[in-house]
C-alpha cells in the first residue's frame, strides 16, 4: 500500500470516530 493511502486510511478512521461522537452528542 502506498504511504499516502495509509495516511488517508488513518485520517478516515479518526474522522469516522469524530463523526460518531458528534452524532452521539447531538442525540
Q: What string, H for helix and E for strand, traces the elements in order?
A: H
Structural class estimated from helices and strands: mainly alpha
Q: How many helix segments? A: 1
Poorly predicted spans: none
What's the helical proportion of residues? over 70%
Number of strands: 0
> Strand share of the residues?
under 5%
Report the biggest beta sheet as strand number plus sense, adding barrel if it closes. none
Q: Oligomeric form of this entry?
A: single chain
- What number is the mean pLDDT? 91
Distance between the termini: 37 Å
Approximate shape = rod-shaped
For the record, the count of structural domains works out to 1
Nearest-angstrom radius of gyration?
Answer: 12 Å
Short description:
The chain contains 1 helix and no strands.
Amino acid at each position: 500500500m502506498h504511504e499516502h493511502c495509509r495516511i488517508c486510511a488513518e485520517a478516515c478512521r479518526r474522522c469516522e470516530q469524530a463523526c460518531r461522537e458528534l452524532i452521539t452528542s447531538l442525540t
